[in-house]
Write a structure and sequence with these properties.
With about 260 residues, the protein is of the alpha/beta class. It has one domain: TIM Barrel. About 40% of the residues lie in helices and about 15% in strands. The chain is built from eleven helices and seven strands. The chain has a seven-stranded parallel β-sheet. Helix 3 links the parallel strand 3 and strand 4. The longest helix has 17 residues. The structure holds fe (ii) ion. Fe (ii) ion binds next to loops.
Amino acid sequence: MAVLADLHVHLLAGLDDGPQTQEEAVEMCRMMAAEEGVGHSVALAHQNEQYPLVTPSRIREAASLLSQELLRARIPLEVFPTAEVMVHPDVVHDFTEGRLLTVADRGQWLLLEMPHNLFVDLRSIVRDLRAAGVRTILAHPERTPELLHEPGAIEELINLGCLVQISTGSITAPPSAAFERALKDWITRGIVHLLGSDGHSPRRRAPRIAAAAELINRWVPGVHAEQICTSNGLAVLRGRTLMLHPPAAPRRRSWFSRLWT
Ligand SMILES: [Fe+2]
């Protein structure tokens, strides 16, 4: 498989619950490049009320320091400053005020996650953000049952211009058989656009991606897998146009299969 792109990994030392030292961050990057086959990656930090001191300028500065460190250590990994923004009532206002960092700092995409254990109807926020000039990447929406299991819910967000980024752990260690089935259905129907390890540290939550990429390649071999694991991510990171196909319609399930989910 081609060099992978990781669209969700916390790599900025001391900024959030990711690596606490630059040594740990570099160790994660070495692991990504040498063991996981990643060539391009976001360098994320959370922007939410738990980390009020994480500003776009601090993320830019930390990502730039990390890039210099990677050059020095000859680790072939390109990293791009990015925030993982938690949805809150003023998110659109904060974006227009320049308080939120977009993916790769390009002003095109905002990586948005749901508040923990809470479902928010994102439709109006996604519309308002788009009107303000930025489109949304949904960070691991498969963790939200209302989006994973409600027919048509994720499609509606995609139709509003969202991209879907799923976590590798959801593929390699799904929490239930019903979850696994639903996620595989998303992948085969073209719902999923991007892959991210959601790595936070070299050990506790390591940035593993290769095994999930292999499974995706088994489920949707060839170009489709390559788009999810590499080229869509690269297009987002480099600010290029994405070649997207509309997702296939959900399969109608028989009354018999409904008994099991
Ligand atoms: Fe994250």
